[in-house]
Amino acid sequence: MWGFRACGDYDLSFYNFYPGKPPSPSPTPPPAPPPSGDSQHACKEVEFPVDFPKGISGKVDDILGWLSSGFYLQWNLPQQCHQCDENNTLCLSEHSKGNQGHFICAAPNHVAGAASGPSGAAEVKSKANTKVIAGITAGVGGILIICFVFFLIYYRHRHRGNFFALPKRRSPSSPLTTLSASMASCSRYGIHLFSYEELEQATDNFNSNQELGDGGFGTVYYGKLRDGREVAVKRLYENNCKRVEQFMNEVGILARLRHPNLVTLYGCTSRHSRELLLVYEFISNGTVADHLHGHRAESGSLPWSTRMSIAIETAQALTYLHASDIIHRDVKTNNILLDQNFHVKVADFGLSRLFPTEVTHISTAPQGTPGYVDPQYHQCYKLTEKSDVYSFGVVLIELISTKPAVDITRHRHEINLANLAINKIQNQAVHDLVDPCLGYDSDDSVKGMITSVAALAFRCLQYDRELRPSMEEVLEVLRGIGSEDYGAEVVDIPMDNTPPPPLPITPDSFTGKWVSC
């Protein structure tokens, strides 16, 4: 057997076992393996039995020469040291009397004061178990926190809001508040909810070739649904607050209205949709403006009888709106659609506004169309149902004259058609205002009706709102004109000593913004 001290000042000792002789009756006990680490506790005596090969004597020089050629040393970790290795502690031999061959575990920085025997190992193991439990608890807690964060993200995505934000008071006109309520009205009033993808497919991905025109606050596209119905899809321009309000007004208003002379709303998109869209019935024959002075205008295409029907049916629609406490606020020939039989469908309620029955006036933004806006608005900044009456008076003059409401090529005092009409009627020069194609000079019946309609339009165009008739009275007068047989009777326009109204502000002198937010 040989042994050495694993330190710089090692020494070497050996014992020879000769062949055929039994070992010493008191053999050397199993050696203590050297612990890991570079501390002073690594300096331990290690002893191993060695069988010298033949030719090697027991002399020290022979043994040292034999060792200098190198040798392999195999160390088998005792079972008791496995616990120390698993807990990252040192495995030390127990040298107390009667404990030879036993080992203890100790932390590297507490070797000197380490507990001995099985109790010390249990203490270290208990501390290690505590660390493991703490680690598992922290891991589970982290997973729960991550799950909670993902839940909040999902909740915010579904509800389109800030989960952590405190409740805020919003004004009644807040677009965000009104948006949910207005879009929810689709379901409340039984209107069909379309998916964005369905309408995208119906309009060929909103192809520019499918555009029907400008609907006031959005572009209108022709579309064909899967069931074969032809529709007009109105697409909001952008999320401008005023345009969102207009869009929502139209949904809420049209959802409640049913009249043969109002365009029918088929449905809308959900408030969760990518865009806000309205789906109307498709009116194939264009607008009154198209047929009077637009791309559909042809001489004789709208005889007086048809124009008279257009006036009556438009008045019916506006009377119905006023009876429902609704102001249209953008009455014009571009918003009067015609079907194949030239029946009227009044459209574009984006500028409409509900007003309470107990309130007689309502403040509004100047959102009408130049040439049709009530001139008194610029004095009191209010629009009422009498403002619709004024705009309808301009429509009557368009039907009589086939002239547009605004034409900058006319004399500067006659750019606005209302100004031109008032001047002609006051000077008893209605014939200068009338479209020659209507037969005013050749048909006494037509002449009588046109003269009476001009007189009614003159009343509608009065500057003082109190002098204008109600829409209900306008409808009654038009029906009387349409049913009366004038024959060869000459009709004079009764002036009733009414002072001429001041010239309303024309578009060429108005520089304010017509649509504001």
Automatic annotation (TrEMBL):
Cellular location(s): Cell membrane
Entry's Gene Ontology molecular function annotations: ATP binding; protein serine/threonine kinase activity
E.C. no: 2.7.11.1
Binding locations of ATP: 234
Region (Disordered): 21-41
Alphabetical keyword list: ATP-binding, Cell membrane, Glycoprotein, Kinase, Membrane, Nucleotide-binding, Phosphoprotein, Receptor, Serine/threonine-protein kinase, Signal, Transferase, Transmembrane, Transmembrane helix
Residues annotated as signal peptide: none
Gene Ontology CC terms: plasma membrane
Transmembrane annotation, as ranges: 132-155
Record Pfam families: Pkinase (PF00069)
UniProt topology in membrane: Single-pass type I membrane protein
Major site of localization recorded for this protein: membrane
Residues annotated as domain Protein kinase: 206-481
Enzyme class: transferase
Biased segments, Pro residues type: 21-36
InterPro entries: Kinase-like_dom_sf, Prot_kinase_dom, Protein_kinase_ATP_BS, Ser/Thr_kinase_AS
Catalytic activity: L-threonyl-[protein] + ATP = O-phospho-L-threonyl-[protein] + ADP + H(+); L-seryl-[protein] + ATP = O-phospho-L-seryl-[protein] + ADP + H(+)
Name of protein: non-specific serine/threonine protein kinase
Species, as recorded: Protea cynaroides
